[in-house]
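Sat 14:20. Reprocessing the chain from the morning session after the first attempt stalled halfway. Input below, unchanged.
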Amino acid sequence: MALPDPAIQATRTALDREFAPRAARARDEWPVDIADTEIAGVSCQVSMPRGDAPLGTVLYFFGGGYVSGDPEYELPITSALAAKGNLRVVAPRYALAPEHPFPAGLDQCRAVYAALSETGPLALSGESAGGGMALAVARLTMAEGGAPPARLALFSPWADMTGAGIAGCEGVDDPTLTVDDLHLCSRAYRGAVSADDPRASPGLGPLPPDWPPTLLTTGSRDLLGPMVRALAARLPDVHLIDRADMWHVFELYHERPEALETLDTAAAFLGRGFTR
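Finished this time. C-alpha cells:
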C-alpha cells in the first residue's frame, strides 16, 4: 500500500482543521437527520430531510483532490441541499489515493450509483474532485447504456487533469487552492494513468448524447474557474453560476450570502429533476 507524502498528510490535517467546525455547525443549522448506511459494500452518509417524503435521491461525491476529504466535511452543502430541496442526499466514503490506487474510488462510486439507480431516478452532485467524480460516473454509465442521472449539480468541478488544463488556471487569485495543489493531487490520484484518460479528466473528449441538464458553479477567484467555464461551453443544457469575487467551492462558507443563495438555486434545480 502506497503511503501519502508529507504534503498530502498536511493537506488532510488542514482540511480537518478548517471544515470539522463547519460540519458541526451544519448539523445544528439544518433540519435533517444524518445517519450511516452501506450501499454496494461502500460506507455512505445519508442526509434525510425531516417532514414530507423526499422528492428523490441525490448521490453526492465529496471533494479533497481524491487524496483527502470525507462526507462529514460536506455537510454545509449536503445537509443544505437536503433541507432546501426536500432531497435525500447520499454521500459515499470512497477510497482515497494513494493508499487505494486509481480506479478504486471511481469503481466504488460507480457501484453505489448502479445500486441506487435500480431504485428509481437519481441525480448526481459533488464539489471539486467530487464534481469530477460525478462527471466520470455519469459519462461511463451512459457510455455503457446505463440509466443516466436525472440532473447534475457540480460545484467548481475538477474536470481536466492535463497539464494544459491545469496551466489554464494559473494566475487566478484563489485563497483556498494553488496550482501546486492540483499537480500534487493529480499525480497521487492517477499514478501511471494518463492525465487525458477520460476517467481522470471527464471534461475532455466526446460526451454521450442526451447529456442531462447540468448546473455548474464557480467564481471569479475560483482557481478552477477557467476549466469550469470551458466545460460549460461544451454542455448542451447547462446553467452556469459565476459569482464575482467568489473562490473555490464558496458554497461551503455560509457566512457569505452568495453561498446560501447558490445552494437555494442548486436545490431547486436538482428537485426539478424529480418533478417533471
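Helices lie at 6-29, 75-85, 104-117, 129-143, 163-167, 179-190, 225-234, 257-272.
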